[in-house]
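Continuing from the previous page of notes. For each protein in this section, the sequence appears first, followed by its structure tokens. Read the first protein now.
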Amino acid sequence: MYSSSSRSPLGKSLLYSTAGLALMAMVPNTVQAQDTQSAEAELESIIVTGSRIVRDGFEAPTPVSVLSVDDLNVIATPNIADAVNRLPALQGSLGTSNASTNVSSGTGGVNNLNLRALAAVRTLVLLDGKRIVGASLAGFENNGSVPDINGFPGGLVSRVDVVTGGASAAYGSDALAGVVNFVLDREYTGIKGDIQGGVTSFGDDENYKVSLTAGSPFGGGRGHFLFFGEHTYSAGVNGNGKRPWSIPENSQALLKNPSYTATNGQPEYFHAKGVGVRATAGGLIIADDVNGTASPLRGIQFLRGGVQAPFNFGTQIGSFMWGGDYKDTNIWMWPTLDLEVQRTNFFTRGSYDITDNINAYAELSWAYTHAVNNSVVPNFEFGMNIKSDNPFIPANIKSQMTAGG
């Protein structure tokens, strides 16, 4: 039996078209699956910095300066704050060398960051993204609310993010000038030490620093322990006789000319060397009698142990004296140019991954700073009235006071 079949051209066209559509429909699914697998393979961890912005430097929406650990090592300053203070936006920040030597200011021996000189209280300082308690001797609001960078664990800092634009919208009014975030290397492993020392060309301000940094994992890598300890000392600069201005023979000042009048053509002030003040460390009797005549007690100074000795006033000009025993009253030997500072600080951190998504950690920091300065005796100490019934007056002085009425 003979049979035959045939398909029309239209049927063939529909068959070919249907097969082609099915093949094309399969292609996007295959490509999409490959792209998904590629994206999963290339996915990297996302790091959220304490600055709350992407660390892109000039490409960031807010100006950001980033100091890496390599940058900090190249600068190699005694403490990390001095390295950060070299940034233009932080010029004028309070450091241990330019802090006020007035103890009551509460800033002696501290190091505060001050962006654009808008006051340190308007610069938010973070340690690994967290706020730090302020440090101040006096505890005043304008100083006590500002952290002391000297107490930060410099050996554990991996980078410093400086947001030089206002960040108050994200952090509050204390970030009006910007944010400085010291990011720690939480996974540091190993041990390292740092020893520094130096002295000025004048032979003063002897200083040294000793620090130790350590880190180690534990618990099969689920936990990590960090430690940092540092001790520094700086002798400071004062009237120790090693600087030209502190040598007694170089004691000088601008004095008012007692012979000056508006018509005699003489200068109103003149520069003089060998200048001191009418005061001594142990005390000096400088008063005249009520009637204007010289007191027999005038010019008696008290040395160590209450020993009495005569004092030569030289030429008196106001509260200053020119010549005489000026070397014993050289006012330039008293002020402090650079504070004597001794500091010790410790930092430790322990963390543990309880689960893949839960991490527990604890941090402990401690810092101690001792600053010493010399200041000029206040003027009100130069004119104290001591009566004859004072129990501390020597007998011979008391008898002369009684005899003189």
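Done with the first. The second protein uses the same format. Note its length before scrolling.
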Amino acid sequence: TIDESADFGLFVSHKHPLAALERVDYQQLARYRALRLNTLVEHSIPTDDLPTSGHRHWSAPNYLLLMDMAAFGFGWSALPRWLVSRYSGGLLKELKVAGWPRRSAVDIIWSFERSLGPAGAWLLDSLVPFAGE
């Protein structure tokens, strides 16, 4: 469902040292490689409050690659929980970190000059139940 796609958790391989900890804090996260989504945002501008381990972070262009990198034990990553539950094959463990899991904001942009097709109309109705009122 649309609702669950906004939940993100922090995940590592079951073999990663962080997986052995009952609870994890940001200082512990900072000791290990962060696996981050590579976006168009300038890298010097922080987009969240997660530690970056200095220069010890790797990036990937999509969440599937990040999930694979985490499953191979290359580091920890913030991933959509629905993606992990459906496609990780049980290879990842969700870390217990204060403030996590988190919901991610979703922006909706469309043109009033062109009507939405069936898929666009469904998505808009799902994300904004009262947009037409």
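What the second structure shows: The first strand starts at residue 7 and ends at 13. The helical segments are 26-30, 63-71, 81-87, 118-127. We return to this in next week's lecture.
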